[in-house]
Amino acid sequence: MRCPLIRDVDDIVGIDLGTTNSLIGVMDSGFPILIADAGGARLTPSVVHFPSDGSPFTGQTAARMRTLKPAQTVYSIKRFMGLRGGELREKDTDVSYEIDRRRGQPVRVVANGHPYAPEEISALILQKLKSDAERALGRPISRAVVTVPAYFNDAQRNATKRAGELAGLTVERIVNEPTAAALAYGLDKLKDRSKIAVFDLGGGTFDVSILELNNGVFEVLATNGNTRLGGDDIDRALLDSISDTEHRTPESLARLLDALIAAKHRLSTEETVSLDLPFFDGSKNLHFDLGREELEKIARPIIEQTRAHCLRSLADARLAPADLDEVILVGGATRMPLVRNIVGEIFGREPNLSQNPDETVAIGATIQAGILSGAVRDVVLLDVTPLSLGIETFGGLMNVIIPRNSTIPIKAGEMFTTAVNHQRSMSIKILQGEREMARDNWPLGQFEIEFEPAPKGVARVGVQLEIDANGILHVLARDTKTGGEKTVEITTAVDVSDEAVEAMISESLDHAFDDMSERVWTEAKLKAEEMLGAVEAAFTRVGESIDPTEKETILSAAAKLREALDTNDTRRLQAANAVLDDATQGLAAAVVEKAMQAAR
Ligand code: AMP
Questions:
Q1: Rounded to whole angstroms, how far apart are CA atoms 465 and 430?
Q2: Are 98 and 194 members of one domain?
């Protein structure tokens, strides 16, 4: 691979912290290279074994313990990162080790009676990668770029960052996996201009991103996915189709699952495989054949779930499949011929198989590490945020400040004012979601900002939302008069499941019409209330100077507006607003005249 520019700099490693396997890489003389462990393997199984006595160990040796001591061997921990008890689905808990999933509490893994946070387990994996890299490079490492699924929410990203810190690494940047894959694909095509889709189906997560590559600028146009869809689902479906799981011991189930996964892998290149498990049930052997056709029948409904995500990301990027130049496949599960066929159908073209599906995300993480350290130049990465962010305003409306699919890092703000006279504080409620009414979106956090009491509409509060390069949200609220401000970092942002994220987007489409009608009604109602209040105030100030017929017209328009407020008829309310607005032109002019006289 040709690389743009080389400088000798401080090491930052790139890490793909995967559901099934993890990898670590570093820039070496301008090239991203992946580092092997002492046994020569670049893939480290993301597995941790907790022996009954002694320290936990990680990687290949731990993976071997999975069938022997399933209750003490933790795998697929990425599925639990940043989640709370209530957010788990039944199938998530279908693992051979114990999990503590109390509602509202962060999920814990229990091994040998000791509870561990998912980030502690991930930290053990990261520590192993770190020490392998230090041994290979002969120098200590303290900084890293770590990848996460694009659809990881704030809480999951923060948990990943914490895992790095627990392992003694400063996480300099969190990069979305498909974006990393695009960097790996595009690094030797910096002069090109093209649009690509990255289809990333791993063990536990699915991501699709659409990117535009233009002279070294990698811009993500849209991203979509499901953090609970992957090869693991196929394994579970296979296991369910073959075994009555209730009557098996955990050990025999783990053994059968291992054999089925190996068979699934072989079926990517062979038509049928034979499974032999000697002494499976006590003295009985287990033997059966599995064909690719049978595997595909079981896997198809799972893989088909990727279709809707791909179509939505294309729609968000405002592109048709024909506008794309390439569809890049990433993630171990894309080795399955059925996945390749379905991707071919969705995008109407043969997928590009040039990238090593296991390594490309880690290579991309390493390139991003190189961009940060200065080892790689002439490359700019522009990622996007998957959901809109905003705050609740008068009438319970969602006021979007950062729209979905905005390029990050991003800062955006708006000025807000008070609704009531002599208000002393304003409550700022931060929301995430795609619905028009605040109550239908997810509250990320709420805080109060205080200011000097003033007539309504005088106090001005600026609210700024910032999503940093890691996708983490910071909120700033400032009273523009006193300069008093409050900054909040939202650390446990979306306390909801990823399915809910997807549901949110589809609900926003389903309810688009009703939501919009409610917004239009609420806006008209706010306008009506404001005008009625203003008319009353104006009569007190300049009432005597108004011609009695004009006054009569205004009072009758105001009465009609009050009646309209009691209906649910938006058109009638809007019309009544317009009539009162028209009738009060003279009154408004009189108020201004009086104010000017007072000022003279
Ligand atoms: P990743 O998370 O990218 O490491 O992908 C892991 C997933 O890919 C697991 O579900 C594996 O079973 C699956 N996988 C790896 N190799 C193959 C293969 N040759 N055929 C089918 N699936 C595979």
A1: 9
A2: yes
